[in-house]
Amino acid sequence: MAILRMDEIRRMTPEELEKKLKELKIELIHARMRVATARGEVDTKRLRELRRAIARINTVLREYKFRKIGA
Length: 71
Hints:
The protein is mainly alpha-helical. It has helices spanning about 5-10, 15-35, 45-70.
């Protein structure tokens, strides 16, 4: 899975963002379990990418929320 950039995230609808957020959180849980049980290779870079993508999506969702309130 490729890294999500802000321009890609901003083009998504809030519904798509919620779906993607859920997928990334599940993937992060699985990656953390692999690290904890030492199964497979430990890809710390992927963990960082997942956390940052989740943070980016949360940021955009929060912006949508404040735009809706402020409008």
